[in-house]
Amino acid sequence: MGLGKRTDYGDAKYAGVQVPFTGDVPATVEAYSLCGFDFVVTPLVRDNWRPPAPAVPENGSLPSPFNRDDCLYINSSQWANQVVGQVSDWIQPDSPDPAVRQQSVAALRHQLGWAAHLGLQAVVLPPPHRPARCPNYAQVLSQALQGLTHMALWLTVPLVISNQSEQDQQQGAQQGAQGQGRTEQNGGAGAAASPAGPGALDGWEAWHQVRAQCDHHNLLGAALLVGPTLPSAASLDRWRGESVKAVLLPTAVFTANKRGYPVLSKPHQELLAMFFKMGVQVVLTGEACHDVPPPAPPAPGAPAGAAVAVGPDGSPLGFSISNPGEAHPLRPYWDYLCFLFRRLEAVGEQERQEASYRDYLQVPLQPLQDNLESQTYETFEKDVQKYKLYEEAVYKALKDKLAAAAASSETSSPYDLPIASTSGRGSGRQHHHQTTHGSSSSPAAAAAAASGGGDGGPVVVLMVVGAGRGPLVRASMRAASRAGVRLRVYAVEKNPNAIVHIQQMLRSEGWEADVSIVSADMRHWQAPEPAEILVSELLGSFGDNELSPECLDGAQRFLAPGGISIPQSYTSYLAPATSHKLHHDVKSYKDLEHFETPYVVRLHRHHLLAATQPLFTFSHPNPSEPIDNSRYASVTFTRDPAAGAAVLHGFAGYFECSLYGDVLLSIHPPSHSENMFSWFPIFFPLREPVYVPAGAPVEMQMWRCCSAHKVWYEWAVTAPVAGPIHNVGGRSYWVGL
Amino acid sequence: MGLGKRTDYGDAKYAGVQVPFTGDVPATVEAYSLCGFDFVVTPLVRDNWRPPAPAVPENGSLPSPFNRDDCLYINSSQWANQVVGQVSDWIQPDSPDPAVRQQSVAALRHQLGWAAHLGLQAVVLPPPHRPARCPNYAQVLSQALQGLTHMALWLTVPLVISNQSEQDQQQGAQQGAQGQGRTEQNGGAGAAASPAGPGALDGWEAWHQVRAQCDHHNLLGAALLVGPTLPSAASLDRWRGESVKAVLLPTAVFTANKRGYPVLSKPHQELLAMFFKMGVQVVLTGEACHDVPPPAPPAPGAPAGAAVAVGPDGSPLGFSISNPGEAHPLRPYWDYLCFLFRRLEAVGEQERQEASYRDYLQVPLQPLQDNLESQTYETFEKDVQKYKLYEEAVYKALKDKLAAAAASSETSSPYDLPIASTSGRGSGRQHHHQTTHGSSSSPAAAAAAASGGGDGGPVVVLMVVGAGRGPLVRASMRAASRAGVRLRVYAVEKNPNAIVHIQQMLRSEGWEADVSIVSADMRHWQAPEPAEILVSELLGSFGDNELSPECLDGAQRFLAPGGISIPQSYTSYLAPATSHKLHHDVKSYKDLEHFETPYVVRLHRHHLLAATQPLFTFSHPNPSEPIDNSRYASVTFTRDPAAGAAVLHGFAGYFECSLYGDVLLSIHPPSHSENMFSWFPIFFPLREPVYVPAGAPVEMQMWRCCSAHKVWYEWAVTAPVAGPIHNVGGRSYWVGL
């Protein structure tokens, strides 16, 4: 029935429960469904079942059939949706004993085959018994994955693996990762600098071993087994980028609140919240082990178990059981999960709209090469916050111009003036003359130029380059109105289709006298007079990736000395990232090109291995002669050793832009402009995932390359190990000039 | 003119010389050609040439043309073959100074473009100035390589990089890696555990950084700069597997012998010999710097410079100069190189024949699935040594049988007997009956069976399974003759074409009465009587890879209790290997399949990262019930930290086989049977080269998997980092049953 009616956290609303072997699937599903759970996780065979003799079946011989009573039996596809199979926990494909090993491999193959036959959606696999050494386990899974088309394998991965004997580990896994903290020597990788604390192994290492051998197959996921002790938040964060399919939550991990109800510690609550937000399902495991008091009507206002017994609205949730007479012993746990799920903050409207774009690869726009569609402009224009920032930037620039003009008493030439005087009529005429080559230079614009500044106030020449359907014209006009400045605006736009919309706007706003429309490419247009302010919105997700530098270099020809470019400067930022989803999606194209293309992505299930580092900065106007927009940067990302090892799938990119003065426009997480949604981050993939040992720095090289007709990036990882340069010579991806 | 007339060491016979900038190529080539050198290495531009202003050319702008006097000018393609270009040594694409960096990048592009235009075969690149950090250098090379189709880039790699300031390194490189041993701090990778000794960087690390970023491009090679101090032999050995194109040998590295002639130290001689054998050319660099006495007729028997002045035949070589009057100052160096080259041991006939197979990938035979061609059999049969070993094994087995028979006084049943008595006629008849289903069961064979053992001596039943054209029949008959034992031989062969050859052999040898030909698959044939000895030659390069185990399991049905299989057992061996050539060749197929296929290869330019480890063993007869021929092994290869880091391209495989008792047949290097050439090693490639840090162990997993219709291997590297399992489920390569 779901943990709550809300739909904003995807699959996370469905909770499962691990139950003993059942001979009657419909009855079991029904029983737990009454208790609230949406699906059951149940053994595929009886605990004592072993592969029939010969104990060592010859490879290639047919596996012996199951006995009907020994195995999970589902005769209706409707139940298959509500049942997740569980592979026997005794299976040890990497046992040092060859007999155990062979029996384990045979049993594992047998059970996986049976689960696939039943059409189950997923199977939970026991944790590797030797976490640091599980090649045989990985090999059997790898072979099985080759034959699977839809059934997922959920490998149980204890978040923390206590460094104890294998026998104990087996029990621990069955009982829900109890028995932490013992320190018997087990050896193996991950023990050093373990983020799991002293005497414990990092469960992530076991996971990585298996999935690396399985070549990062998409049907292999992790079912994280939560223990009573949690690793550091930094190490938990790695799982955001991994293929986590479920969280296994043993009842033993719960504590009792004052009223005796099972509740979770604050860190456990935060862990669950994190996974709920990632859309990860919870599976309750183990028997009820809390003495819940007999149901009684909750006394209103009674002192409840602090954080847990009171809902977000302050009313006592009381864990009331709908049918007290039939109360299932696990019901209080389910009630508590419902409580945790329901009290998650509501997902904002914007994020909800962006949900369908989460971790979805988009090839960046090429606005210079292609003309955008009206709908694309419309989407951009919905970003009210962005244009408010532009308005503020223009406003501040105008105010500064006014102040400078006031400070300067004498004026001799309009070219020396911070603000063109109304006597600058000659330029106005010249403009009229020039714009005739623009197809949509309207008579109204000419009239505006002729009458411009007729009121005697100061007139500022402002050019919007890349005006699109006109939102920056609107923002500029508003700013001018606030500043009490009269503008002479040139709206330069190369897309003839977009201009029609500007014309319409000018007519409806009555701005025809103040705004001239110029249908031209800003790089080639001959401006009739110098501009004091140049406004543009040419930035891509990585700042310069839509060729803002090249466009503005071309446009700055008609900027007056001392003129202002809005934006003034912008800087790109990068961070190394884990994202199984994105790696898998890029890999699915099965070619080199897609691994050498940056993507615009609403990053969701991802983990940043380290804080971002600044990369390339561009400032406008650019006084260099000649201007060199090629760039190179080598950046080193240092990592917290306590966060453990991680896998690197690529780099997340952002930008931060100074529009004017302190008006910042940013999608860089530490400074992200509030409520602004025009840009998703950019993602630079890597051809092969890179294992990054705990504490090892990541070093990457990035080049912005320019040729006569295109601009492109090349990138490479040089530490912890040197890898190939991606997109050499722009062979796979470039932006056309 | 070549260092010698011998052709057995390939290109190594051609030596080059590094010369200053020349404005007259024909004259320069001619001058050095007179001195003996086959080609010159000369700067592409004058030393003081710099890219013309603008110092920072805008990317995409055309490079300024050279001035005719500033650059190497070749107006005839005939000279291009004798000239290798040298890129200016001042170039520092990774200089911390952006201006130097940009000028370096521009100059490097400029010079490479010019060299390609001239049609040079190769260009020598200066060593990275910052060996541990040269991403920009790598990026320019990577871009250049994209556009090259035949011109090779030879990156100068000092074997040892003294850990000094960059300025010093520059000079050191120009002067031939002098100035070793200074210990100024430079930092960077490779300093720790450097195989180059304390205070020195491992040149291999710089090489690896560059070529990894260049994605292991085949046109990028190393020109190894030899210094006065050499690193350890273990670290030098790594270069065997790398793409080494030339050895740069500075005159300053030579010492003077007692007579004042330039000679090399013993380690340097060994180094040169190693590269000569790999077919690597030597380039002499620097000015003559030894005071060679004026030419005088060498006094016969005069005490010469120990190891160097006396030829292998004891006669003084004397470094006589053909034209004393015109003697070039570098002539004594060239003479010495000639001396070193000429005294290399002659390549044996067998190795010479195999030269064309060196590092050439062959997909293993599938003798079970396919019938071999007569020519293939003929090639096999040429291996006299192999059949001598078989003869010896059969001889010893027969001797042991005789001894056992003598020890056993009472005989009751032929099945208990180590040797079938002559009264075993019934079996003979049965055989006659059975073999009628074989198409070539000749009347002669029946007659042989009828008359078998007529002389009353002991008769041993020996079956050759997979008789081919009969070489094992011949070896067995010879052994029997030596042992004084009469054999009743069944020659079982599934290829009906091969049988014709056996028939011919029996006729010419007069063995028709002793040998029955059975045209059948040994796995399905019903033998007329039990065999006491089963002889087969079903081994592949990896022992079991041509399905010897499966075939012999099938054939052992007709082995008498206590019967002997020749071979008795065999074990496969593996070692991690560097082989740029093989990696490149596999990669050239541009698909996954070829990376998941083992190849039979005459390994030549390869380096084993560690000693071999045993993998799978099979013994015959196999008493297990049921027989399981699947295998799994996890092997760890430990490495000498002093050997430095290395790159892993795959695994070299071998086998060792006990034919009978102490008769060993082996292609495992430590025990390789002398003069036996039937098997080349096997090579298991890896999809991606793996960087193995100095001292880090390599761990690999290998599975031999069996299904009803095929057998295949799967393999994976799990340390230093876990990688994907190759050939999952036999998807790319298998051997059909």
Detailed description of the structure:
- The structure is a homodimer of 737-residue chains.
- The first copy, chain A, has 737 residues and is of the alpha/beta class.
- In chain A, the strands form 6 sheets. In chain A, strands 1-2-3-4-5-8-9-12 form an 8-stranded parallel β-barrel, surrounded by 4 helices. In chain A, strands 18, 19, 20, 21, 23, 24 and 25 form a 7-stranded antiparallel beta sheet that branches. Chain A has a 5-stranded parallel beta sheet with strand order 15-14-13-16-17.
- In chain A, helix 4 links the parallel strand 4 (122-125) and strand 5 (152-158).
- Chain A is elongated.
- The model of chain A is unreliable at 165-193, 298-325 and 412-454 (pLDDT under 50).
- The interface between A and B is large, with 53 and 53 residues.
Oligomeric status of the shown chains?
homodimer
N-C termini distance of chain A: 55 Å
What is the rounded Rg of chain A?
32 Å
Care to count the β-strands of chain A? 28
Strand content of chain A: 15-25%
Number of domains of chain A: 3
